[in-house]
Write a structure and sequence with these properties.
The complex is a heterodimer of chains A (307) and B (279). The longest helix of chain A is centred in the first third of the chain and has 23 residues. Chain A is built from 14 helices and 5 strands. Chain A folds into 2 domains: 192 residues, no CATH class; 77 residues, Alpha-Beta Plaits (2-Layer Sandwich), CATH 3.30.70. Chain A is globular, with a radius of gyration of 21 Å. In chain A, helix 6 packs parallel to helix 9 and helix 8 runs antiparallel to helix 9. Chain A is mainly α and 307 residues long. Chain B is of the alpha+beta class and 279 residues long. Chain B is built from 8 helices and 6 strands, in the order H-H-H-E-E-H-E-H-E-E-H-E-H-H. Chain B has a two-stranded antiparallel sheet. A two-stranded antiparallel ribbon of chain B has the order 3-6. A two-stranded antiparallel sheet of chain B has the order 4-5. The model of chain B has no long low-confidence stretch (mean pLDDT 85). The chains are: A mainly alpha (307), B alpha+beta (279). The interface between A and B is large, with 57 and 42 residues.
């Protein structure tokens, strides 16, 4: 299957050549638009007096009718000894169900305001050619998640909210607080110098929580044309959780082409960056594998070399 | 051959787990320390009406800011990050900046999705955000003998939470002092008195109730209240011992009460033991 001896261009260049700039950045652009959209929904009130959405990511009220609440915060509240009122319970349930369907970590890559910060840090990290730095195990965040709930129970507080950069930055932006930029800089430097992809990829317990929420999510990326893969490794280079790719991409025979790991953030960068369109969004019951010759006419290189 | 990698795997699993657990113990300890620190609410920061006690509040407040958004007077603000402020992101107000205007519909409580502001508060006059204390009698204009009266007049619970108690002005000798006096039972802690105090630094301040008040001793019985409630002495047939009044002879039990002026200085006991009572 692989292209023996083929010299690949730097990450992203092949996709750029075959699909054009927008084709090679479609989901990245959509994601930035989504992040800006959700942030603007919250900022429209304080900035322009359009109060469609009030509150923050921790808890909000849309059109004075739809409550949305962060279920991880409600979880900590419950172990801390407070049972929330029905408004928060309903709001938390809606969020929980939504992310359980579309993938918990869609929150991370499409909504969370910290994601652009860590993406920027990774971009610069790449440009500067820095070392990986401290790379704690991916499971660290799950341990930390457990710790956060334990501390909440022991201290009787919503413990993570005392330090949570996600809500602190979001609240700081929406309510205009000065310290928020200190938090942004701290996360940026952590990811740039201390640990590559450190915060979102290894540490953040909020991501860990949403990862658990999305364990059985419907929306999945599938490596349905994995037979076309020319081993350029671009998807591994751009994927923020690249341990999730191999089981799907390198699976043999009838093994599922779906990326089923709940660590996958459904960011779609692998789809963007693949010059031979191996990946696509689909649902978790769609296990079909496209084999050449494909119905769509692509001039994907390297297909013929397989034999 | 199969045993060796198995053994190594187990060892590795155990060391990894131990490392994780230790790391989490450190991180969790730090987090617990920070949350404890966050429980120290500064004295000038007052919670919104209906707020649960500070401990319960920090278990219930998700710091969403919806109460702040629905406050029509911009009284409430969210705490920024910082060492000595209220827990980051939680709502509070500073009476001297913008006090609570005590809205009848209590929109902040209505906006709270979690119950950190208790929906059980339906009458704003039952709110207990703090307790006003006239902290500086030396500078309070009323205590100096003037009729400022501002705190009394602006109080939404006028004549209940703040009353003017008239007393003699010892300094001038023939004027009155109208002392603003807080009745803590009725004070909501809205802070309007503190806001409106005309002095450069308010002489009346709203303090957290834990600072503003003592607590009655459980065992102490107010006999005069019990007597009033009963309409009769609490204990029947009790010997009413002589009061010690000013003047000569009051310590002389043989002549209790001393000499009465109207008898021209002749000895007359002012008190007689009741018939049949005695040793």
């Amino acid at each position: 299957m692989s292209t023996q001896g083929k010299v690949h261009l730097p990450t992203g260049q092949e996709a750029l050549a075959t699909k054009g700039w927008f084709g090679a950045h479609k989901y990245l652009v959509l994601r930035r638009v989504s992040q800006a959209f959700f942030l603007l929904l919250f900022l429209a009130g304080p900035w322009f007096g359009i109060w469609w959405v009030k509150g923050t990511l921790a808890g909000s009220m849309t059109f004075d009718f739809l409550p949305l609440n962060d279920p991880m915060i409600l979880g900590q509240m419950m172990v801390a000894g407070h049972w929330p009122e029905s408004t928060a319970l309903i709001g938390g349930l809606i969020v929980l169900v939504a992310y359980a369907l579309i993938g918990g970590r869609v929150y991370c890559s499409w909504v969370c305001p910290i994601n652009p910060v860590t993406d920027a840090a990774h971009w610069l990290h790449d440009r500067l050619g820095l070392q990986k730095g401290w790379q704690p195990k991916r499971a660290t965040r799950y341990w930390l998640l457990g710790t956060v709930f334990l501390v909440s129970a022991l201290t009787g507080t919503i413990a993570w909210e005392v330090v949570n950069p996600v809500t602190i930055v979001h609240r700081g932006l929406v309510f205009g607080m000065g310290w928020v930029w200190g938090m942004v800089v701290a996360i940026f430097l952590f990811d740039l110098i201390v640990a590559r992809r450190g915060w979102c990829g290894h540490v953040c317990p909020v991501g860990a929580f949403y990862s658990l929420v999305g364990t059985k999510s419907l929306l999945r990326v599938s490596a349905l044309r994995r037979d076309a893969c020319d081993d350029c490794m671009d998807c591994y280079a751009v994927c923020p959780e690249n341990q999730v790719i191999s089981p799907a991409l390198k699976g043999k025979g009838d093994s599922t082409p779906l990326i089923l790991s709940s660590d996958c953030t459904n960011c779609g960068r692998c789809i963007d960056v693949c010059s031979v369109d191996v990946f696509a969004f689909t649902h978790r019951f769609d296990t079909h594998i496209d084999v050449p010759p494909y119905a769509v006419a692509t001039d994907a290189p390297a297909k013929q070399n397989a034999a | 051959m199969a045993a060796t990698p198995h053994k190594v795997d187990r060892r590795r699993f155990l060391t990894d787990s131990a490392r994780m657990a230790a790391g989490c113990a450190v991180a969790g300890g730090l987090l617990a320390y920070v949350t404890r620190d966050a429980k120290a609410l500064p004295d000038q920061a007052l919670r919104p009406p209906g707020a649960l006690s500070e401990d319960a509040f920090l278990a219930a407040c998700i710091r969403c800011g919806l109460c702040v958004r629905d406050c029509p007077y911009d009284t409430l603000v969210l705490a920024d990050l910082g060492q000595n402020g209220p827990a980051t992101g939680t709502p509070y107000f500073t009476a001297r900046d913008i006090p609570c205007e005590m809205c009848d519909d209590i929109p902040c409580v209505a906006a709270c999705p979690t119950g950190a502001l208790d929906k059980g508060l339906t009458d704003i006059e039952d709110a207990r955000m703090g307790t006003a204390v006239l902290v500086d009698q030396e500078n309070c204009l009323n205590f100096l003998g003037l009729r400022c009266d501002v705190c009394y007049r602006v109080c939404p619970m006028i004549d209940e939470a703040i009353r003017l108690e008239m007393r003699h002005n010892e300094r001038s000798g023939h004027h009155a002092i109208f002392a603003p006096t807080v009745r803590a039972d009725a004070c909501t802690g809205c802070g309007i008195c503190e806001k409106k105090c005309v002095l450069p630094e308010a002489a009346i301040k709203v303090l957290p109730t834990r600072l503003a008040r003592g607590a009655p001793a459980e065992h102490y019985r107010k006999g005069w209240e019990e007597k009033d409630a009963r309409g009769a002495p609490v204990v029947e047939g009790i010997i009413d011992l002589p009061d010690r009044l000013p003047g000569p002879g009051t310590d002389n039990l043989a002549a209790p009460g001393g000499f009465l002026p109207e008898t021209g200085g002749a000895f007359q006991p002012t008190f007689k033991l009741p018939e049949g009572a005695g040793q």
